[in-house]
Write a structure and sequence with these properties.
- Two copies of one chain form a homodimer.
- With about 400 residues, the first copy, chain A, is of the alpha/beta class.
- Chain A folds into three domains: about 80 residues, Winged helix-like DNA-binding domain superfamily/Winged helix DNA-binding domain (Arc Repressor Mutant, subunit A, Orthogonal Bundle), CATH 1.10.10; about 140 residues, Nucleotidyltransferase, domain 5 (2-Layer Sandwich), CATH 3.30.420; about 150 residues, Nucleotidyltransferase, domain 5 (2-Layer Sandwich), CATH 3.30.420.
- Chain A has 13 helices and 17 strands.
- In chain A, strands 5-4-3-6-10 form a five-stranded mixed β-sheet. In chain A, strands 15-14-13-16-17 form a five-stranded mixed β-sheet, sandwiched between helices. The first copy, chain A, has a three-stranded antiparallel β-sheet with strand order 7-8-9.
- In chain A, helix 2 crosses helix 3 and helix 6 packs across helix 13.
- Chain A is globular.
- The N terminus of chain A is likely disordered.
- Chains A and B meet through strand 14 and helix 10 of A and strand 14 and helix 10 of B.
- Chains A, B: Belongs to the ROK (NagC/XylR) family.
- Chains A, B: Keywords: Kinase, Transferase.
- Chains A, B: It holds the Pfam family ROK.
- Chains A, B: This is Sugar kinase of the NBD/HSP70 family, may contain an N-terminal HTH domain.
- Chains A, B: GO terms for molecular function: DNA-binding transcription factor activity; kinase activity.
């Protein structure tokens, strides 16, 4: 008996890993593949590849496009693409916005609702109910026709399983976020909770589900009201021992500096966080980054940008010395401010990073996708499909 | 033809991975195992386990101890232990010492020579020739009877392949260290080059070859003339994208602080490195840590220790915020100074680490093995035996 069961388990695992290999191969390709391409790229026979593809097509994980005339003689091949009828839901609460976004397996946002909101000091239960309401409305539309493979929720703080431990800029502590949200979502959806910056960093490391992004090793710095971050090594987000890694906003720039919401002093976000930077520049809180750039010649604004670039340089040089990453990727308002920040930031990284003489750190900015955390949460949920597609085929 | 070759390759790989599994099982055990124990722990038949054990015994990778009377009836079992006639050589140059140490596969130092030396600003070629000379003398003794599976060299700086790029406290730059040393080593030995702190951290993560140490997730802080470091996650040293990770000594504590040998300002090692601490305490450079502890009541010494603890608290809190590690392990002179440093350091970590409310960081000290880098270099060379024992069996 035992032997039979073990063999059964092994066969099921083999089928699952073969399906996963074929699915990842199609997702990672630059364009549509034929069944013959899949066979060649996975090193299997055409018959095996065709059988696996058929299973994935039946489950909606792969779509067949229109047959194209072959480049040379032979039968026309059917192009294969990642499924457009299966997707995942990504949700986000930030101090300045609420977001719900549905991505399909091709990584396209097929529906979204992003809404500005001032959620500093908000009530967690009411805020999550509001997010549940707008998500329900979104799924009542055309996006509801997609098969949802999962959902994720990005919050700007430390998370532990389904609980948010602390989000200083929301003023939230010990919030059973998944329970509170799930009560307001349709169809028993239960999102997986993650840290906003960890999830946003995925949108740089992953161009689409299963597809490597432009950078594989970098420090992502998420400019929000505060500052979050994530280190990505070999395309994988470094989560640390309990999932709390990446809090670059609370690296100390000057122990005698201003008091931070976290209770410490001189944290990076007290110089380069959105609110801190606008306050130092003498501009109102809602001022968009583009206006800050436009006013970069004003003395106060110039001084605030210099202080932010200096603080970023000192703090991020320390992080690069410890983590050995070749690039810093600025996100959120810091991406929009990259041009005025870059000269001083690059100069400091070049001077303070021990290895800079051999490899000078690069500063990149990712164009401002609002609510990148929501996109990352959906990408993570889609990873579940790529890792174990057998659950989705008939 | 291709099929036969592939099958051949697979069988060889299978044999290698089976031998590795058996060897690691014996190395990881708390005490000697019998062939039956090995069969049970690896999930193979007794016949297969016995055959693999015999191959490893023939290669000297396992030793058979004296047969013990069995606890119950049955034949006496032969106890198996990691081989004592196979070992590796670990070498180290630090600003204050030269070291050569031979470890056997049980992790015991079977021979060593550690010699104090002032190597600040020394000539790399002459220093490495001197290390080669003392290594040759060491291997002319009883340690020369061991079969050497490899060698490693620990240097306190950034390494790139076989070249030392920069070791600020030795004053060395762009040194072809392995070439220079190998010319003075017997029998074509060619050590693998590594960073001192990365290798020393292994001695905490690994109790002996193949055997987990007491901690699996920690930040190792190596107190030398300067300060090195290594982050260990899940028992593995985080090397970063080019092997340059862990430079905690150059995390900035105060941008307006003193100039560092690296060219930057306010680096941690300018407060807590051995030379900096002694200078601040008004003590001569050679003062041993025990004397610093004994004089902790003197005002100057107290002030220097406070400044060092404060700097460690600010810098390491930043590192823990980014890496999410539950423990800091102090090594070198910082281990010897742990008692006076700990109260202020723990207080600062508790206040400045964002997750400390849920898991307060712990500060440990590893008793001062002189030249832990040499031990780590030998452990890494022995890893090669554990990973691929097939090369060592007849």
């Amino acid at each position: 008996m035992r032997t039979t069961e073990q063999t059964g388990a092994r066969q099921s695992t083999l089928r699952s890993s073969n399906l996963a290999l074929v699915l990842r191969t199609v997702c990672a390709a630059d364009g549509p593949l034929s069944r013959a391409d899949v066979a060649a790229r996975t090193g299997t026979t055409r018959a095996t590849a065709a059988r696996l593809v058929d299973e994935l097509v039946a489950g909606g994980l792969l779509d067949e496009g229109e047959r194209l005339a072959p480049p040379r003689r032979g039968r026309p091949a059917t192009p294969l693409l990642p499924g457009a009828r299966i997707g995942a839901l990504g949700l986000q609460v930030d101090a300045g916005l609420l977001a719900a976004r549905v991505l399909d397996l091709r990584g396209r946002a097929v529906a979204e609702h992003v809404e500005d909101a001032d959620l500093v000091g908000s009530d967690p239960a009411r805020t999550l109910a509001r997010l549940g309401g707008l998500t329900t409305a979104l799924l009542d539309g055309p996006a509801g026709e997609l098969r949802l493979a999962g959902a994720g929720l990005a919050l700007p703080g430390l998370v532990d399983g389904e609980v948010l431990l602390r989000a200083p800029n929301l003023g939230w502590s010990d919030v059973p976020a998944v329970d509170l949200l799930a009560a307001h979502l349709p169809g028993g959806l239960r999102p997986v909770l993650g840290n906003e910056a960890d999830l946003a960093a995925r949108t740089v490391a992953e161009a689409a589900p299963g597809r490597p992004g432009p950078l594989r090793d970098f420090l992502y710095v998420s400019g929000q009201i505060g500052i979050g971050g994530a280190a990505v090594l070999g395309g994988r987000v470094l989560t640390g021992s309990a999932g709390w890694a990446g809090e670059v906003g609370h690296v100390c720039v000057d122990p005698d500096g201003p008091t931070c919401r976290c209770g410490s002093t001189g944290c990076l976000e007290q110089y380069a966080g959105r609110h801190a930077l606008l306050a130092a520049a003498g501009l109102p809180r809602g001022t968009p980054p583009a206006e800050v750039v436009a006013r970069a010649g004003d003395a106060d604004v110039q001084r605030a940008l210099d202080a932010a670039a200096g603080a970023l340089g000192v703090a991020l040089a320390g992080v690069l010395n410890v983590l050995d990453l070749p690039a810093v990727v600025l996100g959120g308002h810091l991406a929009a401010l990259a041009e005025p920040l870059r000269p001083r930031l690059e100069e400091l990284l070049g001077r303070r990073v021990l290895s800079a003489r051999w490899r000078r750190p690069v500063v990149e900015a990712v164009p401002g996708t609002p609510a990148a955390g929501a996109t990352g949460a959906a990408l993570r949920a889609l990873d579940g499909v790529l890792d174990d597609p057998v659950r989705w085929v008939p």
